[in-house]
Write a structure and sequence with these properties.
This protein is of the alpha/beta class. It contains nine helices and eight strands. It is globular, with a radius of gyration of 18 Å.
Length: 233
């Protein structure tokens, strides 16, 4: 049983979906503190041929609040501006129609918090590209766990999920020791995305944008191949 545990990010980059694809169960870690200027409520799109940031508006953004309690402030004005940005920059992309409809479906559902919106964006994209991974939510499925934070919480969730393998993004190499996980009867691997390239209107390629960009330009079968383009360390 392979497990990953990650904060929910809104329309994250393809590496996030590679991690989802690499495991049997993916746990949204939503009962930890919100990270300001992180990737929970924002990501990057191709805007006028260059990398540009988008952010989901919040009522407040405090690192003292949990992700699951951080409320959204999306209104009709913001939605119209965001849809206009998508239309202006992607209307000529080969899969614009289906992906634009998917984005609207995600954003126009009722979401109270950024956690709810981010999880919805990930689950709906995962369904669109054919991923079969099981999703769980730490605040719902592991709320009885009395270990509150840090590596002990991750290990406790893994044990409760009956995991034998834990896979973490490559940035975790500075935080987690394979021996520490081995002592807890878990194998630890780090996932490193390989260089991923695809056609973007024939211009100079802009890498590591939101998954929105990937699915705008690539059919599902190509995206599925891109998801396998990583190294486990």
């Amino acid at each position: 049983m392979k497990v990953a545990i990650m904060q929910p990010y809104v329309f994250p980059y393809i590496g996030y979906f590679q991690l989802i694809d690499a495991v049997d169960t993916f746990v949204f870690y939503d009962d930890v503190n919100f990270i300001k200027r992180g990737w929970i409520n924002r990501n990057k799109l191709l805007i006028n041929g260059k990398e540009g940031m988008f952010s989901m508006p919040l009522k407040s953004a405090s690192q003292n609040d949990l992700i699951k309690d951080t409320q959204l402030a999306i209104d009709g004005i913001w939605l119209r501006k965001f849809y206009s940005t998508i239309e202006h920059n992607y209307s000529k992309a080969p899969h614009y129609s289906s992906v634009y409809g998917l984005i609207k479906t995600v954003l126009e559902r009722e979401h109270r918090t950024i956690g709810e919106l981010a999880m919805c964006s990930v689950e709906m994209i995962s369904d669109y590209i054919g991923l079969k991974t099981k999703f769980e939510i730490s605040s719902v499925d592991y709320h009885k766990n009395n270990v509150k934070s840090g590596i002990d919480r991750l290990l406790a969730i893994c044990h409760e999920a009956k995991a034998t393998v834990y896979i973490n993004p490559i940035g975790g190499q500075a935080l987690y020791s394979k021996n520490e996980f081995k002592n807890a009867d878990l194998q630890l691997y780090f996932i490193q995305p390989n260089e991923i390239r695809y056609q973007q209107f024939g211009n100079e390629f802009v890498p590591w944008l939101s998954i929105i960009d990937v699915v705008m330009f690539n059919p599902v079968d190509v995206v599925q191949n891109l998801l396998k383009d990583y190294t486990l360390l």
